[in-house]
Write a structure and sequence with these properties.
- There is one protein chain.
- The protein is α/β, with parallel strands linked by helices.
- The protein folds into two domains: 5-116 and 354-373, Enolase-like, N-terminal domain (Enolase-like, domain 1, 2-Layer Sandwich), CATH 3.30.390; 121-351, Alpha-Beta Barrel (TIM Barrel).
- Helix content is 34%, strand content 22%.
- The chain contains 13 helices and 15 strands.
- Strands 5-6-7-8-9-10-11 form a seven-stranded parallel beta sheet. A four-stranded antiparallel beta sheet has the order 3-2-1-15, sandwiched between helices. Strands 4-13 form a two-stranded antiparallel ribbon.
- A hairpin with a 2-residue loop joins strand 1 (5-21) and strand 2 (24-38).
- The structure holds 2-succinylbenzoate and magnesium ion.
- The site of magnesium ion has 7 residues, from loops.
- Magnesium ion (MG) binds at residues 188, 190, 213-214, 238, 260, 289.
Length: 374
């Protein structure tokens, strides 16, 4: 496909409530969106990098720079046939997977539109609804947390994930489990613990958690495998898994029993599908993580979640949990039974609200192929 133009934007979007993890609080998102124009169609991609390099080494500004200086011009010059060509085109840039995913996912959206199929169908999705969970940030008190959980359960969500850290873990699980003995409950430490906390983490076993997500270092498999031997609860890796090779290594040495797949963290649909397949063949279930996305990134997460081995509820939840006014329509909603229905319209399945996107845009840049003088 000939790439006529790539328009890169930064949007400012305030969250409806702050989101606190062991690495910090997010109140306002600075979201980079790519709009790729090709042969009369427009594909959209969202960058999931945070505002600061705290979840991973990427952030809004590094992604912007790498897309403007390297990936955008390289993509425009390359004329990819489909999304599957992107890893090769971007392969000369080391790292910056969230920046790469921004463009790769836009090409997958374009490809689905060109083929006249939904993105879910294009990637081989097998579900017409996906089961949804919620990720609940650290709160200032347990009663506040209990009220939020009550509301989310009433909304039908299938799984509650609690962000945790030292001082916000065992007491919290204790209270939540005694009130709701049967719910699917998990926790996510975002690397808040160290191997010396192994005995403390083994105490989590008392609460029948579906998994403990990323307890140790963000770049580690080895020490997670030592920790896993000391836990009954399965470890789920998020931050540590950058690609299929990492997933294979982690599974091989039993660093985890479950994998969280995030499109941005792994560099886009190609690698996400490769990790999904590798985990599937080895009997390791996966689920789709979230990064406080707008409707564009969320629509891609929904499509990804329709693959066979996404057998656990993801952090893919209703737009209204994050935004007063999201940038796609129809609004992304979760049914009373905690599910999102998959659209069968061509592409990502949700229209962009161009007027709203223009109003939220704080910077914009047009990227075309580098002019080559022959
Ligand atoms: O570790 O899964 C995570 C949000 C930002 C950064 C990292 C994570 C998260 C979430 C929120 O857990 C998931 C969501 O609701 O989008
Ligand atoms: Mg996580």
């Amino acid at each position: 496909m000939k790439i006529d133009e790539i328009i890169l934007r930064e949007l400012h979007m305030p969250l409806v409530r702050p989101f606190e993890t062991s690495f910090g609080v997010t109140r306002n998102r600075r979201i980079v969106l790519a709009e790729v124009h090709s042969e009369g169609l427009v594909g959209w991609g969202e960058c999931t990098a945070g505002e600061r390099p705290t979840f991973s080494s990427e952030c809004t500004d590094t992604a912007w720079q790498v897309i403007v200086q390297e990936l955008g011009p390289a993509l425009a010059a390359a004329e990819p046939r489909h999304g599957g060509d992107c890893p090769r085109i971007f392969g000369y840039v080391r790292g910056h997977r969230m920046a790469k995913a921004t463009l790769e996912n836009a090409i997958w959206d374009l490809e689905a539109q060109r083929e006249g199929v939904s993105l879910s169908r294009l990637i081989g999705g097998v579900r017409d609804t996906i089961a949804c969970g919620v990720s609940i940030g650290i709160q200032s008190s347990i009663p506040e947390l209990m009220a939020i959980i009550e509301k989310e359960l009433e909304s039908g969500y299938h799984r509650i994930k609690l962000k945790c850290k030292h001082g916000w873990d065992l007491d919290v699980f204790e209270k939540v489990r005694s009130r709701w003995p049967e719910i699917q409950l998990s926790c996510d430490a975002n690397s808040a613990y160290r191997l010396r906390d192994s005995d403390h983490l083994a105490d989590f076993d008392a609460f029948d958690l579906t998994m403990i997500e990323q307890p140790l270092w963000a770049d580690d498999f080895f020490y997670h495998s030592l920790l896993q031997k000391r836990l009954k609860t399965g470890i789920c890796l998020d931050e540590s898994i950058r690609n299929r090779r990492d997933a294979l290594a982690a599974i091989e040495i039993d660093s985890c029993r479950i994998i969280n797949i995030k499109l941005g963290r792994v560099g886009g649909f190609c690698e996400a599908i490769a990790i999904h397949n590798a985990a599937h063949e080895r009997g390791i279930p996966v689920w789709c993580g979230g990064m406080l996305e707008s409707g564009i990134g969320r629509s891609h997460n929904i499509a990804l979640s329709t693959l066979q081995n996404f057998s656990l509820p993801g952090d893919v939840s209703a737009a209204a949990r994050y935004w007063a006014d999201d940038i796609v329509e129809p609004e992304i909603k979760v049914s009373a039974t905690g599910e999102i229905a998959i659209s069968d319209t061509p592409g990502r399945g949700y229209e962009v609200r161009n007027d709203l996107i223009d109003r939220l845009t704080v910077r914009k840049e047009s990227i075309r192929a580098l002019e080559t003088v022959s």
